[in-house]
Amino acid sequence: MQRELLKKARRIVVKIGSRVLTSEDDGLDAGVIGRLAAEIAALRREKREVIIVSSGAVAAGRKALGLEDKPRTIPQKQAAAAVGQSKLMRSYEEAFSRHGLKVAQLLLTREDLADRQRFLNARATLDTLLGFGIVPVINENDTVAVEEIKFGDNDNLSALVTNLTEAHLLVILTDIDGFYEADPRTNPDARLIPLVKAISREMEQAAGGSGSRVGTGGMITKLAAAKKVGRSGVPTIMLNGKTPGLIGRALAGSEAGTFFLPARQVLNRRKHWIAYTLRPKGRLIVDEGARKVLAQHGRSLLPSGIVGVEGEFERGSCVRVCGPDGVEFARGIADYSRPEIERILGHKSREIEEILGYRYGDEIIHRDNLVVL
């Protein structure tokens, strides 16, 4: 099954971490970038389309600004990104030009993908670039992003780009050989796990922090990325980006790194966008009966099942749906605002118009806009 999935992967997202791209002094490693460009060019000759999600701009800019450690303030990080992004793109441009390939830069924020029209515009742009044979290089727009519109890390961004472009495979390049049962940097006896059929809660709890002066993501963010793309039916392979030739060997079917199988229950593209791209703005607390109906039968959420509402949100906002214990089990797009829901919660749908004086529909969240997590 693994070989078949790799063989069918014609459009691939390759996420390259900061620790792969930087040298011992934390500057960009031109030799590594040149080698990766050669390996990606080889994939292009196999008629595979490749989209790069690249870290490294802040690390490159930090060195140029003379900062000894990771930027400690948001303005420092944004300044480092502004300086470093041009250096990063110049390195890619020079490396790919040696193989007759052109690159294009796309800088995104979560806000770009949370808006459905901008999401579709970004996808159209990427499809057009790939049609021209260009290698897109995507990074978060750190120069303008604040917490409300950040992806948080490029592992998350790579997962969202995989969904955006309807890619067939996510390749995560890091500085270790794959996913281990424990951190191999601190536990030399840790065992590499070559195949992950499903990401368990125990695996997520075992994953540690970043442990890096130049990166923002750790193993937990890579597991989260694999889990997200898995829900759209896409596998992930995690490889050591410092090992020459490993990408080609892995895609040819040789055992390397860790291969994450896609989930058995797959979300359609719109529901995946709702679950993982939109940022929830509020919470709806439902009773146990509503929780069971939503979780087990995929029904719409009606006002009669709601017992509480939290946060400020408008009609059309993404909200979390939580059970009586307060634990989120679903999320979706609300057809009513918080003030409206406060007035109609606990009532029958037929009473909505009598209470509000108008009615958008019978559902607070229609089943087509509701995702059970």
Radius of gyration: 22 Å
Mean pLDDT: 90
Percent of residues in helices: 25-40%
The CATH class of the largest domain is: Alpha Beta
Oligomer: single chain
* N-to-C span: 26 Å
Provide a count of the helices. Answer: 15
Number of strands: 13
Largest sheet: 8 strands, mixed
| Spatial strand order of the main sheet | 3-4-2-1-5-7-8-6
Question: Might you state the CATH topology name of the largest domain?
Answer: Carbamate kinase
Provide the low-confidence segments as ranges: 209-217
Look at the structure and name the CATH superfamily of the largest domain.
Acetylglutamate kinase-like
Report on this model:
It is a single chain. The protein has 373 residues and is α/β, with parallel strands linked by helices. It has 2 domains: 2-265, Acetylglutamate kinase-like (Carbamate kinase, 3-Layer(aba) Sandwich); 280-372, Archaeosine Trna-guanine Transglycosylase, Chain: A, domain 4, CATH 2.30.130. Helices cover 39% and strands 17% of the residues. It has helices spanning 2-8, 18-21, 30-45, 57-65, 74-97, 110-114, 116-131, 154-165, 201-206, 219-230, 246-251, 269-276, 288-297, 338-344, 352-356; strands at 11-16, 49-54, 103-108, 135-140, 169-174, 195-196, 236-240, 258-260, 282-286, 306-310, 318-322, 328-333, 370-372. The strands form 2 sheets. Strands 3-4-2-1-5-7-8-6 form an 8-stranded mixed beta sheet, sandwiched between helices. A hairpin with a 5-residue loop joins strand 11 and strand 12. The longest helix is centred in the first third of the chain and has 24 residues, at 74-97. It is globular.
